[in-house]
Amino acid sequence: MLPIATQLIAFWLSAKAAGASFPPESLPSSRELRFNPEKLVVLVGKNVEMSCQLQSSLNFVWYHLARSSDTYKTVSLGATLVMNSAKLEDSGDYKCIAFNPNGNQSNLTTNVDLQVLEKISFLSVVAHPSDLFVFEGYTITLTCQATTWPPIITWSWYKSTEEGSSMVGLGKELSLYRVEESGVYYCRANSTVLTIIQDEYSGNKTIHIIPKPGIKMPFPEPAKAPKWWWQQERKKRTRQTATKMRSSYSSGTILSKDMRAAV
Asked: 48-51 and 92-99: which strand pairing?
């Protein structure tokens, strides 16, 4: 079989000799040719086959209108259009037009809307900061991360316990700062577009939030405590410890190594 490009050139030459124009100046709007379904959704990398076969005596030409274009482009000759390993840029409106053997355009046409969707791939949970042990009052943010995903998607969060898993949040991020929020977390990415359903789960991420003794929070919510407050609190505790040590030495409560030996 001759390559598609060679077939198109031969068809164009014979049709032009008969007075036809390519691509047609105005594509007909008749819906006499039917393709079911008229909306087609596939994942990236899948093979696609569309057909508008009606009469063997007719010649067919496929045109493609990309999402980012306002002009139809000729993509194939023949009743069946086959695409191997569909790409995102293959999305758009496809129109099949029938021509009579002499090259004259008939009023037979059909449209197919093709949507190529990105896959949800390599779903994982990333923590910031990366330390999975934090003191209460410090916020640790979990992010549901994927290499690729479709435009229509729902992100959700789950916490695992001995009794099972329960949903604890929606969105791409989840913030934790309370001791009782320690535990095992994972995220879910779900997408449903017409007949294509994708449902992926990440691996587990274990978070430990440790009580911080001796600090009274002056803020209604620990997550709202600014960084400067924690720095000042650490300095204050250091000064308090040093003062106690000096007081103990001066009162004789703490003895040197030589004094303990003498006693």
From this structure: unpaired
- Which 3 state secondary structure label does DSSP give 189? strand
> For residues 145 and 133, what is the distance between their CA atoms, to the nearest angstrom?
21
State the amino acid at position 49 in one-letter form.
E
Residue 204, SS3 per DSSP: coil
Q: What is the pLDDT of residues 151-170, one digit of tens each?
A: 899 999 999 998 899 999 99
Q: How far apart are CA 23 and CA 53, in angstroms?
A: 20
Beta strands in the chain (DSSP E): 39-43, 48-51, 59-66, 73-77, 80-83, 92-99, 105-117, 124-128, 133-135, 140-145, 154-161, 164-170, 173-176, 183-193, 196-201, 205-210
**Ramachandran quadrant class, 9 (left: phi over 0; alpha: psi -120 to 50; beta: rest):** alpha
pTM greater than 0.85? no
* CA angle, residues 243, 244, 249, in degrees to nearest 5: 100
